[in-house]
From TrEMBL:
Residues 144-211 form the CHMP7 winged helix domain. PANTHER family: CHARGED MULTIVESICULAR BODY PROTEIN (PTHR22761), CHARGED MULTIVESICULAR BODY PROTEIN 7 (PTHR22761:SF21). Belongs to the SNF7 family. InterPro entries: CHMP7_WHD (IPR057471), Snf7_fam (IPR005024). The keyword Repeat does not apply. This is Charged multivesicular body protein 7. One of its GO terms (biological process) is vesicle budding from membrane.
């Protein structure tokens, strides 16, 4: 590989056997061995694109490729076929065709691209048995798109992003780190113009470039307003440079006056100070003009903002008018009346439903009362057969007091109602009472004896 390039060689560049195959010419008929043909074509196609990318260019010609890929005093024999195949696939395009497909006005650029040639040469066929001239330049489409994107990014991230129009010289200086030469920048501008992102025109013999602004799908044509703003911006720049230059000159006069005064040359020092005053006065006048221009530019920027706001207002009014096209006050009142009528109907329905629920609650209360009475009637006979508890006081007994009178008096009175009790049941109950009474008396007698027993 030639030492004049900075391209990194492929891994198999030192493999003599493989490189001998790659440096050989292509067969006339691809169908003889499609695998070898395609393998060799893919190898050189990728290498051509890589060499251009490594060198930072977007154009290539056969003469440069022969020098770039020279190995052991030999150049590849099939590079012309590679360029023809790449052109057939749309990967490369002649510079003249690339420029003509964008805008014929670009053909008048004198930028050393050799674009001004007969039209029949511009659109001549590249395929078939035609030979490829050694110096004919081709544009690599993939790389020129990358350069265009990078150039647009550099502009929008620079200090000139607020300016829609730049001079060609300003753009060259701005893109020096992106485009290796002016030809590469021109190809990138051609691609941007094809994408409707820039517009190039001439003003007083000077090429100017207008960029699309953020939020715009495409760039607008250069208008008189754009030219006026561009002239004001140029005047601002020139006045700023002159004011800065006069400031430096005034400082120089002051330093000279100090030096002359130190040497005892008072009259010459006074002349330097007078000159300094004149320079400062001129600088003040220029600075006042500069401030006026800046004020005008600020007003223009504000007017553009106001214009954008007015356009937004207009769009909003149009949208609102369209959305209220079928809406009238009468229709709104009619809808409100219908809604009120439906609400009244709903209130009546709710009241009717609530009344029905209240009647159902009353019926439920009656049913619960009836259920309670049925429960009372269904109690067991052993409970319902008992007499009611007497409420009258017991009559005093005339019989002498017995030991169990205290217990008997605590019992309820004998009911007078007829009881279904047999004599045997009464006899048994009387015996139980007697036993209970005897046990109670015995407990009372033995209790004092327990208290008199001596302590153990």
């Amino acid at each position: 590989m030639s030492n004049s390039t900075e391209m990194t060689p492929p891994p198999d560049w030192d493999d003599d056997e493989r490189m001998n195959f790659m440096f050989s010419d292509f067969k006339e008929n691809r169908d003889v061995n499609t695998t070898d043909w395609d393998s060799k074509m893919d190898f050189w196609t990728a290498l051509v694109v890589k060499s251009c990318r490594d060198r930072g260019t977007v154009c290539v010609n056969l003469q440069e490729l022969n020098k770039t890929f020279r190995r052991k005093e030999k150049s590849p024999l099939g590079l012309a076929t590679v360029l023809q195949s790449m052109a057939r696939c749309g990967k490369i395009q002649r510079e003249s065709e690339f420029a003509a497909n964008v805008d014929c006005g670009w053909l008048s650029w004198g930028v050393g691209l050799l674009l001004v040639k007969p039209l029949k040469w511009t659109f001549s066929t590249l395929l078939g048995s035609g030979r490829v001239p050694l110096e004919e330049s081709f544009v690599v489409i993939e790389l020129v798109k990358e350069k265009a994107t990078e150039l647009l990014r550099v502009y929008r991230s620079s200090e000139f992003a607020s300016r829609s129009i730049l001079s060609f010289q300003e753009l060259c200086a701005l893109s020096s780190d992106v485009c290796v030469d002016e030809s590469t920048m021109c190809m990138a501008l051609l691609q941007l113009q094809r994408d409707k992102q820039v517009m190039v025109s001439l003003h007083e013999g000077e090429k100017i470039v207008k960029f699309s602004q953020p939020g715009q799908d495409r760039v607008s044509t250069v208008s008189d307003v754009d030219i006026g703003i561009y002239q004001l911006q140029r005047s601002e720049k020139l006045l700023g440079e002159r004011v800065e230059k006069l400031g430096l000159e005034a400082d120089k006069c002051r330093e000279e006056a100090k030096l002359l005064l130190s040497e005892g040359k008072k009259s010459q020092a006074l002349r330097c100070l007078r000159g300094r005053k004149r320079v400062e006065k001129r600088a003040d006048n220029l600075f006042a003009k500069l401030e006026t221009i800046r004020g005008i530019l600020d007003r223009i920027a504000q007017s553009q903002t106001d214009k954008m706001v007015m356009q937004a207002y207009q769009a909003g009014v149009s949208a609102l008018r369209l959305s209220l096209k079928d809406v009238t006050v009468e229709r709104a009142e009619n809808l409100v009346d219908q809604i009120q009528e439906l609400c009244d109907t709903q209130d009546e329905v709710n009241q009717t439903i609530s009344t029905g629920v209240t009647g159902a609650d009353e019926d439920t209360d009656e049913l619960e009362e009836e259920l309670k009475s049925l429960l009372d009637e269904s109690k067991p006979d052993s409970i319902s057969g008992l007499p009611e508890v007497p409420t009258k006081p017991l009559r005093p007994s005339r019989e002498p007091s017995l030991p169990g009178n205290d217990l008997l008096t605590s019992l309820p009175a004998v009911p007078y109602s007829h009881l279904n009790v047999t004599d045997e049941q009464l006899e048994e109950e009387l015996n139980q009472l007697t036993l209970t009474d005897s046990g109670y008396q015995q407990k009372k007698i033995t209790s004092p004896a327990k208290r008199l027993e001596p302590a153990q």
